[in-house]
């Protein structure tokens, strides 16, 4: 039987050659030429002055938050609809994630709710460019300027997405990406911090290397972490980065096939706001209320089509539980109950998308 996965890596560029080069030369640990090339290349791709590679996207968020000064007692505004890493990274800093509802159209931070939740303890706002659509950055940057806050973009799902023509990652004070196996490009596990601020970049670099002084070996003026990416990961990353435009264009093409075939169906389709370039990390739809979402996913699974439910809202999870959360975050609650991510692998064919759409239409019609 056919099996169509939600995501799968495509590794048919220079991946094998670069990884073999690491093995043959012995450069397999936390430094080497692929790390330098991957960081330089990724900064150039984002249009930022600096990029610092980390072991994964979660620790990238942790050190990015620390580097802009988030610490014990601070509050950081985080969307209720996100992957738990966004909130956990705030908690790792000893700070409190303050949950905010999302916009019903873009599924990213609701600006009015952000404004309501700013207090004297707020230190930063973390827009998450969910499923590849950028958050509405301009009003967030304005709020940050008014209240003296930092903007930490969680761009884990949005490599190449843009806001008014400007690529995500270079808009806030600092931003992070993930290269997990199902992300736009992958290093197996991996992450990156990008910024235009030299002090932030240096702080991130020091934090990820145990806090070691740059000029004096084994001198640790601060407590850091071992969050280094390996040269092996970076070898994969560099090969993937060489083809990043292809990966992004493939996703946009797959999305255009879905949109053409699902237009007019009783479904909420993902949008591309007038100011946005959506890279459709995962093409995602919201099923109508009369359809049992989990049953529909089972029916699709039986037809060999893998799907994923939207993230469970942070307010439902034990570490961030809010008893009145469903009332406080109605948009997130409704999206999370009925949303699914459809197969969006770069390897997907038009025929497979047609098959997925036909099966999905059957689920919603009967
Ligand atoms: C994937 C992801 C992360 C973290 O990435 P890892 O590399 O898996 O640690 C953070 N935030 C969001 C929104 C993600 O999707």
Describe the structure.
- The structure is a single chain.
- The chain has 366 residues and is of the alpha/beta class.
- It has two domains: 15-101 and 108-241, 3-Layer(aba) Sandwich (Aspartate Aminotransferase, domain 2), CATH 3.40.640; 244-365, Alpha-Beta Complex (Aspartate Aminotransferase, domain 1), CATH 3.90.1150.10.
- Helices cover 39% and strands 13% of the residues.
- It has 13 helices and 13 strands.
- It has helices spanning 15-25, 33-46, 57-67, 84-92, 111-117, 137-147, 198-208, 231-241, 244-262, 293-302, 325-328, 330-338, 350-365; strands spanning 50-54, 75-79, 96-100, 122-125, 150-154, 162-163, 166-167, 174-178, 191-195, 276-277, 284-286, 308-309, 339-341.
- A seven-stranded mixed beta sheet has the order 1-9-8-5-4-2-3, sandwiched between helices.
- Strand 2 (75-79), helix 4 (84-92) and strand 3 (96-100) form a beta-alpha-beta unit.
- Helix 2 crosses helix 8 (231-241) and helix 3 crosses helix 7.
- The radius of gyration is 20 Å and the shape is globular.
- Bound molecules: pyridoxal-5'-phosphate (PLP).
- Residues 56-58, 82-83, 85-86, 128, 154, 156-157, 178, 180, 191 line the site of pyridoxal-5'-phosphate.
